[in-house]
């Protein structure tokens, strides 16, 4: 496990975010969407970055939707995978949701993305339903949901007496 520094991203991180997005996803978000989010939606859409020795190695994007935290994107550069960076980013997004007053987190995941599904399930997400043809290439998605704080984090903090 690599313990990374997690902070909010800015427009200065755009090229690094997009490089990770391209490396991590077969169907990356368009550059212009990420740029617009970072430029115009500060305080509405939150981009957080994971940095290892000052290098951006992963990011997450989320926003509040009523009493839910919508996790919009999560990407870790392939060179940094299997180091619990995705878990650290999800926990940080969960903390953002709690501070925004959210009671649950939701996300969509490709039905063929088994590694991501396992990561989400480890934190307490469960599959709610299948969304047919959700992605541009017509692949279906699972809608997944978890209460906030994440159940796995709540249990861990109760067991060792610490609080996040």
TrEMBL record:
Name of the top EC class for this enzyme: transferase
Top-level taxon in the UniProt lineage: Bacteria
Gene3D superfamilies tied to this protein: 3.40.630.30
Keywords from the UniProt entry: Acyltransferase, Ribonucleoprotein, Ribosomal protein, Transferase
InterPro entries documented for this protein: AcTrfase_RimI/Ard1, Acyl_CoA_acyltransferase, GNAT_dom, N-term/lysine_N-AcTrnsfr
Enzyme Commission number(s) from the entry: 2.3.1.128
Domain N-acetyltransferase, residue spans: 4-149
PROSITE patterns: GNAT
Signal peptide from the UniProt entry: none
GO CC term (a single one): ribosome
A matching Pfam family: Acetyltransf_1
Molecular function GO terms recorded: N-acetyltransferase activity
Name of the protein in question: (SSU ribosomal protein S18P)-alanine acetyltransferase
Organism lineage string: Bacteria, Thermotogati, Synergistota, Synergistia, Synergistales
């Amino acid at each position: 496990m690599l313990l990374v520094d997690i902070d909010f991203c800015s427009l200065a991180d755009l090229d690094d975010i997009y490089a990770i997005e391209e490396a991590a996803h077969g169907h990356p978000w368009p550059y212009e969407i990420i740029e617009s989010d970072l430029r115009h939606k500060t305080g509405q859409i939150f981009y957080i970055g994971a940095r290892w020795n000052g290098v951006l190695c992963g990011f997450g994007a989320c926003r509040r939707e009523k009493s839910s935290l919508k996790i919009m994107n999560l990407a870790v550069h392939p060179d940094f995978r299997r180091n619990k960076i995705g878990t650290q980013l999800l926990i940080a997004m969960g903390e953002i949701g709690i501070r925004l007053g959210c009671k649950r987190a939701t996300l969509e995941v490709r039905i063929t993305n088994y590694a991501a599904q396992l990561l989400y399930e480890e934190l307490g997400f469960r599959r709610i339903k299948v969304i047919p043809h959700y992605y541009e290439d017509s692949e279906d998605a699972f809608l997944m949901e978890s209460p906030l704080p994440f159940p796995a984090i709540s249990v861990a903090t109760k067991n060792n007496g610490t609080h996040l």
